[in-house]
Amino acid sequence: xxxxxxxxxxxxxxxxxxxxxxLCSGSxxxxxxxxxxxxxxxxxxxxxxxxxxxxxxxxxHIYGAKADDRGPIGGGEGYRYVFSANxxxxxxxxxxxxxLAVALPGDVIVIxxxxxxxxxxxxxxxxxxxxxxxxxxLASDRGYNGSQGALITSDALKxxxxxxxxxxxxxxxxxxxxxxxxxxxxxxxxxxxxxxxxRHDYYYKFPxxxxxxxxxxxxxxxxxxxxxxxxxxxxxxxxxxxxxxxCFIHHCQYNGLGYGISHDVSNSKIAYNLFDHxxxxxxxxxxxxxxxxxxxxxxxxxxxxxxxxxHGGNDRKDGTTIxxxxxxxxxxxxxxxxxxxxxxxxxxxxxTIERNWFVPHISYFAAIKGLDFxxxxxxxxxxxxxxxxxx
Length: 391
What we know:
CATH class: Mainly Beta
CATH architecture: 3 Solenoid
Helix content: 10-25%
Structural class: alpha/beta
Number of strands: 30
Distance between the termini: 57 Å
Number of helices: 8
Strand content: 25-35%
CATH topology: Pectate Lyase C-like
């Protein structure tokens, strides 16, 4: 139970970690409001790998992922923060939990970039999840003046989820969110599903982890680094108008699951993200009414399976061939040699695939796999290391 709103003022007075001048603009807060412009001279962020060339111009058109004026693909150095000037700053685990318990819509809770919030014991003993109420922003300073951003982490294998969203229009920005398991565990999957294996009953005896989970509308996650979650870094179980952008999402590669961003009956826009070492960087159950727009994302060189995914009815065993309502994949760059896209059924409307750059692939057959191409519109894409024309 959350304390009543009338307790908020008393709480703020009693909490040393959020004392004066932490609720005033100045010092740490200045860069949250006035971040450096894109293109300014900043130190490189060692936590983000070099994506190399991410776009190419052919006949006056851009193919692949090109950064926008908010900052680099994957976030980090040079990213622009846009927050109000009234913040609440917390510096330890219990202060963060207490601050979230009384936060109101519009509040911004900031964790300084040198802070680590380790929730392992709470998660392991109490099945704890960090809960963010509706309309609240939780932020740190990833990319500012070399900061990697505050770290929220759990080493408990069953971390499901680490962060639970409690209402609509929650915003998470500038944080590192790290799970307990970045491994593939190929031998476990083989023992479960090889001939004679006990299949799902055995497979799911091994605990899995989720980073951020929501069933509400309007989740925004930007300028974050999310890693090492065996089920999904971000689980969009339902709701619409989700926006995941300028994040670096990697090492979510547990064989059989391993999703960067997963969808059930939900809709999202996924843009300007950097992906690496995932099984599927974007995935969906393919249930009716679901869909996503993926634009200006970069898939780096290592992936356990195809990078962008939408399941079909055969996967759900629901007697349909539905693979979501819609999928729009445009201006993405794929470096991984696996199939870039897998659509395992027929979208209710269509899947549109255009102006992407498939660097290691020479043809649509090599880049895209699907069970029903009648509703897959793939055109005007670039293939190979140095393309001079499109297909």
